[in-house]
Amino acid sequence: MSTEEVSEKTGKESHTIYEVGYLLLPTIAEEKLGAIVAKLHAVIVEKGSSIIAEEAPKMRALDYPMSKVIDTKNQSFDHAYFAWIKFEIASDEVASIKKSIETQDEVLRALFIKTVKESTLMASKVSEREAQKGAGGKVAEGVVAPADEAVEASGEKLVEKTKVDEEEMDKSIEALVIN
């Protein structure tokens, strides 16, 4: 089946899943965050996108200071509100969304990546510890058991781990990042 046939059957062009992780200025009042997120949603939806998932902005310490020119002054920030939105859109429209979001006054930085529709959130270390305890294992305080032991105890099939070359991993990440 050709791409055109699939497009005709689904009623969509070739759509790709993207996720934008963005940092909002820490100077924004919390009661105004909802309006700013709604404005970013509007930018995404007006191009024909559908939003799949999102996370509300949360104040985070930054690993390094980031600066932005505000009112002709270069200001540095060590905290920001972090949030993300996952959406589906035709690949040729993502560049205009990227430009629109990055030029918003409230956005400190934004990163767009190609992703998958399914949730890719990793379980926390606490969840791994609880999973092993539930499987009958004992875990010393502050020690995290390997996740595959907990999965093995639950009867799920394990996937063999392979070594990954850092250079190959870097190339894969670069292929996912939208320039």
Structural summary, described in words:
The protein has 179 residues and is α+β, with helices and mostly antiparallel strands. The protein folds into 2 domains: 3-114, 2-Layer Sandwich (Alpha-Beta Plaits); 122-162, no CATH class. The protein is 33% helix and 32% strand. The protein contains 6 helices and 4 strands. It has helices spanning 3-10, 33-45, 94-102, 125-134, 147-154, 166-176; strands at residues 15-24, 50-70, 73-90, 107-114. Strands 2-3-1-4 form a 4-stranded antiparallel sheet, with helices on one face. α4 runs parallel beside α5. The longest helix is centred in the N-terminal third of the chain and has 13 residues, at 33-45. The model is unreliable at 1-12 and 137-154 (pLDDT under 50).
Strand-helix topology:
Blueprint: H1 3-10, E1 15-24, H2 33-45, E2 50-70, E3 73-90, H3 94-102, E4 107-114, H4 125-134, H5 147-154, H6 166-176
Antiparallel strand pairs: 1-3, 1-4, 2-3
Helix pairs in contact: 4-5
